Amino acid sequence: MVSPFSGNTGRLPRLGLCLITDRRVCPPDELPGRVAAAVDGGVDIVQLRDKEMPGAALLELAEQLREVGAGRALLLINERADVAVAARADGVQLGEAALPTGAVRAIMGDAAVIGRSVHSVSGACEAAESGADFLLVGTMFASNSHPGEEPSGPDLLSRIASAGVAIPMLGIGGITEYNAGQVMAAGASGVAVITSVLAHDDPCAAAQRLKNSMADAVAPKSVAERVANISRRV
Known about the structure:
The chain is α/β, with parallel strands linked by helices. Helix content is 40%, strand content 15%. It is built from ten helices and eight strands.
């Protein structure tokens, strides 16, 4: 179910590690340095999300993050298409109740990368049909950022794919280096995290471990592993 309006999936990394900012985890004045370290470790999508920050300050921070990730990581602004355009960001991340994808595309142009956050199969189908380039699917596991919310689990990714949605999906919610493999195995193209990288003493090392876990989950099995699996089945 790939929308004819989705034309930027090729700009997304194959194993996308997305870092979402959160002022409760990292104050804005420390953010550029921590994001720089995370990008060094393998983060290749940075989503600037700060609903409390005034527009002018958000633009300044977006410009700093653009410089930090220049040539290495995509910069997406959460819902603020105006700030994204002014900061020359790569695109936006839209919630389920945000502006329609087509309206944002008209503001930002065809080259913008537009993601939508979804929490159900029907929401994913609608987002893909509307022209989103990728989906942020959650919640995978229990998460500090959404306390009390019942996680959908990685199975939601499998059900979305089975419904015919073919644009890239990133799992979000409680993802760590220890469970990222489950998300990738369920059909994700990548994962999005906050705490497991941004709150870490060494964001670079934390990002590296997450990226390695993702890669291990989708790496072709060795001949010995395939033979062992066949032997166990016969």
